[in-house]
Amino acid sequence: MENENFDLDQKPAAANKDLWLFLIIIDIVCLCVFGFFLYKNLSARFFSPAEGALAALPAQEELAEADAQKDLSLEEEVVSAVKEQEAPVNNPAKEPAEEDPVVKEAPAVAPAPAKEQKVSVIVKENPKSDKYRRVTFRYYGEGKKVSIVSGFTMAKPQALRKKKDYWETTLSIAPGRYRFLYIVDGVNTPDPYSPEEDGRSVVVVE
Fold this sequence. Notes:
Elements (H helix, E strand, L loop, with lengths): L1 H45 L1 H39 L34 E5 L7 E7 L6 E5 L7 E2 L1 E2 L4 E7 L2 E9 L2 E3 L6 E2 L2 E6 L1
């Protein structure tokens, strides 16, 4: 009887030992599972930003590369625009500019010789009378018959005598201002070497 009791007491002790062993194993498994989830949560909190930063780096590099490409394309557009402005415009309709014709200078013309001023009226004192002057008239020109007419001739023609290259006469005239004409072959002709007034030559006797 005592041996039977001892066997009965030994069986519950062995069963308890197996139960505690099973519980320990379950605890270990639970700790492993709990530790795994804890590690996962901790790694998600502390290591995900770094991973996000690492993931953001390629995106930033892509943005920088895109900006560089935009700048390059903009620079190429500016350069092409400048080249188009500097390039000469080919206008086939525009005719080439005509060259200025060569202006030929007119040959120098020698100036006409100055007309020789000849003395056609010579006034001298009259030794025989203080009231009159000795005035000599000379007509330089061609003609068959030459005479002079004026107030001092009483409106009557006074003939001139032919000399070498002129016609001449000397008259006694009182001081004053007179107008006169030569009559050359019947044509009234002013003296080309005396001043004129109203188509007649003028002489001043002092």
